[in-house]
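Troubleshooting entry. The earlier prediction with adenosine monophosphate gave an output that would not parse, so I re-checked the input for stray whitespace and re-submitted. Clean input:
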Amino acid sequence: MAIDATLPYDDDNIFAKILRGEIPNKTVYEDEHALAFHDINPQAPQHILVIPKGKYVSWDDFSAKASDAEIGGFVRAVGHVAREAGMVEPGYRLLANVGHDSHQEVPHLHVHIFSGKPLGPMLVRG
Ligand code: AMP
């Protein structure tokens, strides 16, 4: 179900539980600011999620309230993960859903990284 990205942060969301180690994940990369892990329901041959360690509901919340260090660390982590996975030469796609109309389901900011096949033109289906 899509979430309301204007609501306060919910400590019981599934990615908060992953960050606390209460739910297992297939970690790809971790540093001070970010955790990257494989999506449980991949939509491409490679589908990795990168999340900030701080409590941010969405890209909107993060871009408005995170510190420059958190934002810099997170953006660099996304680039690092894609580079280390060999995605730069073939290419990859980034996606961050925000709120109801985007169908964001987990209320903790996550950037999807898709790669591993030609992904076709960007589609926004109705
Ligand atoms: P979104 O629709 O942008 O909120 O995407 C949420 C993503 O989280 C989906 O692609 C799900 O497959 C993924 N997801 C949900 N639970 C887990 C989990 N426990 N481990 C890894 N990925 C998950």
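This one parsed fine. DSSP finds three helices and five strands in the chain.
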